[in-house]
User: What shape does this take?
Amino acid sequence: METSLSSTPIREGKRWQKTMLELCSNPLTVSGLVIVGILVFTALFAPVLAPYDPQRIDTFHILEAPSSAHLLGTDGLGRDCLSRLIFGARISLLVGFVAVGIATAVGTVLGALAGYYGRWVDSLIMRFVDIMLCFPTIFLIMAVIAFLEPSIWNIMIVIGLTSWMGVARLVRAEFLSLKKRDFVLASRICGASDLQIVFGEILPNAIAPILVSATLGVGGAILTESALSFLGIGVQPPTPSWGNMLTEGKDNLEIAWWLSVFPGLAILVTVLGYNLLGEGLRDFFDPRKKR
Assistant: This one.
């Protein structure tokens, strides 16, 4: 018995090590992890990494080109662009995680109900999903924001509540397949309630596609927030956001190219990183691929 108990942690450790090696063998996953890791590190340690206060106005250094004093130049108020870019990563990370968290929670609950109960519950929920999908997401968000105060919290909530439909359809499909498995039938015979079966048995087995969808959704949420801030209905100045930095760059494009180039590159690399990570996780969890 002692030998069996002592060998269990060893087997679990080897299994975990094998899983990590398989995950890191995919260049897409590694590339995405590196980019996302740098973004998270930058957001967490923004006060340490930023060379200046992102909101400090310096009228003696307005629209200065990149130099040793200001590596990414300054904006129309003399604020350091690198510092604002670094603090803007916090906004992107917060919006991405919170908005996708809301969308994933709503989509998972509705998709689980539709897939597990079926019949009229499934028809009602999926017809509502179809109605929501009829509206272009960005225009739906703009219409809702027009009636609300433009703040970061409103932006996150609205993005989350208008982007759950894909998660709901994905979770519904997983539940339709998993609820017919033997382990669900065994749980039902043992007297487990519907709540226990849904959240204790089926949902843990459907977590892989949900995780992939959430990872891919973070990039989309960041891109949506940047677009709204660029249009002036997202995060409001003086709070640094990559989107409102692009707005100022648009007004000074001919004389201050750095105001548009560097925030644009930050958005591009961040969205690319989350997409690469999501694609890598999709390949890793795909049962049709031999590893």
Remarks:
- The radius of gyration is 23 Å.
- The chain has one domain: 28-285.
- The chain has a mean pLDDT of 82.
- The domain at 28-285 is CATH 1.10.3720.10 (MetI-like fold).
